Amino acid sequence: MTADRPLDPLPKAHLHLHFTGSMRHGTLVELADQHGIRLPDSLRESWPPQLLATDEKGWFRFQRLYDTARSVLKTEEDVRRLVLETVQDEAAEGSGWLEIQVDPSGYGTRFGGITAFTDLVLDAVRDASDRTGVGVAVIIAANRIRHPLDARTLARLAAQYADRGVVGFGLSNDERRGEPYTFARAFAIAERAGLASVPHGGELMGPESVTACLDWLHATRVGHGVRSVEDPALLDRIATQGVPLEVCPASNVSLGVYPDPAAVPLRKLFEAGVQIALGADDPLLFGVRLTGQYRIARWHGFTDEELAELARMSIRASCAPSDVKERLL
Ligand code: ADE
Ligand code: ZN
């Protein structure tokens, strides 16, 4: 029997990674100590937290931990450190291209406004990319539990940076609140600027949410989207239209979308001809980075060649320029 091929060297693109959620655990602890911020035990000794957010309470627990993690980023240096370490970790795991998702409204007040914060992130991203050789782009994501007017402000911001490092516009947070149609005007602003439409959908809610992302937000990719498998017609639609799904298996288990890794419908999506881009979502809270997602696919019986095909799918689904895609494929 031949040994499994190592997964780190496989060239990949990482398309579903949140800014705050990408922080190294060690950095979270160090910054918290440096700034005198108390961390709950689940973010210190007993990390990673056992979220199992099958109910509303679980989701709020996740949100609270997320807010705590956000609060340790106080200075420009902290932001630059997070970005550089994240991109270094991506390089170590074979990502040749990273699209990192950030909601500037969560940081604006601390960093002189959403424009100043976006400038800082983009500058840090350019620096990290130069130092590591990983191509890095930014997705600006609106928070669906805030007012749709806030999303429009962020879409205008994203549009301003359309040819300067921002490649897409997203929509995150609790899908059970903030229906896609209420964000249609924000996404239209982003679409006119040539940005990809990459909302979360089909994670905490079923296939109807993915359909709404396609119909109202003209999603060019869907964050998660795994619950599309519950509607064969939708599955056929996304496979035929070639709308990639950013599938994050470890996140789905931590947040209670599926009871265990075996229940994530990876094989079903693959067999249906859906383009899959595996992602880590928030490794800080789920404890699994990008290669770990490929490892889960291997547990599902994906062969080395199928894993290589998943990696190629992620590159094809990315917003990377064609020369970068060609180099990685
Ligand atoms: N923001 C960060 N992680 C998220 C997730 N898994 N779903 C929705 N919004 C998020
Ligand atoms: Zn996400």
UniProtKB/TrEMBL annotation:
GO molecular function: hydrolase activity
SUPFAM superfamilies according to UniProt: Metallo-dependent hydrolases (SSF51556)
Cofactor(s) needed for function: Zn(2+)
Record keywords, A-Z: Hydrolase, Metal-binding, Zinc
Cross-referenced InterPro entries: A/AMP_deam_AS, A_deaminase_dom, Ado/ade_deaminase, Metal_Hydrolase
Residue intervals of the Adenosine deaminase domain: 11-329
Entry EC number(s): 3.5.4.4
PANTHER family tied to this protein: ADENINE DEAMINASE
Family to which the UniProt record says this protein belongs: Belongs to the metallo-dependent hydrolases superfamily. Adenosine and AMP deaminases family.
Name the record gives this protein: Adenosine deaminase
Native species: Tenggerimyces flavus
Lineage per the UniProt record: Bacteria, Bacillati, Actinomycetota, Actinomycetes, Propionibacteriales
